Amino acid sequence: MSSHQRSDRPGDYPLECDHCHYPIPGEPKETDDGYFCSTACRDAGTDDATMADPSAYKRIATGVEPLDSLVPNGVPTDSFISLVGEAGTRRTELLTELVWRAVERGEPAAIVTATTPPTAILERFFETGWNVLPALEDDRLRIIDCFTHRLTDRETFLERRSTWIEFVGKTAVDSIVAIEEPTDIEPILSGLNEALDDLEMTETGLVTIDSLDEFEDHHRHAFVTETRAAVCKARYVPIVAGTVAKGDWGPGDASIVDGIVDLRLADHLESDVRHRQLGVRKLTGAQHLPQWITYEYEPVRGLVAHGAADARDVPVGSSSAEL
């Protein structure tokens, strides 16, 4: 072992830079403050500006069992992922669980909804057995409301709410960002970024979008491009956006996202049972297993993988051989 390799790491693993924490490929630049890979890191490190370990935020285990079973080393947090599935594949439940697992980890989350009112979004959590009232109270959850202003009679909609839904609406009022022009992508982008600033969402948390299908094709391309750059790439906050399966989902759409997760109904497995399966078609920068995994939904547990280890017990960084 050479003098610039860690004695506490197995084999010939190279020394990590004490500023950027990436492996040092050659001889380190050694100072009294540590070992550095470059002059830039050495200068920054001696200014007491040492960065956090990137492994702490650049990959996450989502907490969704069937998804984590296929991505054993974690999902890159700079990813814009499209969740493609036909009706009946539990796409909505998966998006809901992604948010809950982030909240459960103590992280903030934001939901962009174009198809459902905010109170109904929150009710999905309660119906599953997940209480998000503390997250609303602790200011860890935002709902970007692109739905309500599409209603022609919003006042009547509000007047007809049940006592419980009215209570939920009042409790969540400070957590709802109302978009008054939801047919234009600029107000949505502005509202989302303001919400992420309020939640201090950089290198933490996640964003879900209930449906990209609400955007016209040319608006959808611009919306994905802008949010991917401003949220995923600039903040290291992943976005998972739902869309209905339409053939091969268009090569233009597929090329502008970092990942595509497919959900399908697999009736061919058993003639009298409707199986649901999840597969990772694409995930840039991450290992993913090339197979379909069968899953089902259970209250409280969420989506459960059939015949797979509970991925919530697998730490990020574990190899597939350890599963």
UniProtKB/TrEMBL annotation:
| Database matches in InterPro entries | KaiC-like_dom, P-loop_NTPase
As one GO molecular function, the record gives:
ATP binding
Record domain KaiC-like: where: 61-302
Superkingdom in the source lineage: Archaea
- Key words of the record: ATP-binding, Nucleotide-binding
Q: Which PANTHER family match?
A: PROTEIN GVPD 1, UPF0273 PROTEIN TM_0370
Quote the protein name from its UniProt record.
Answer: Recombinase RecA
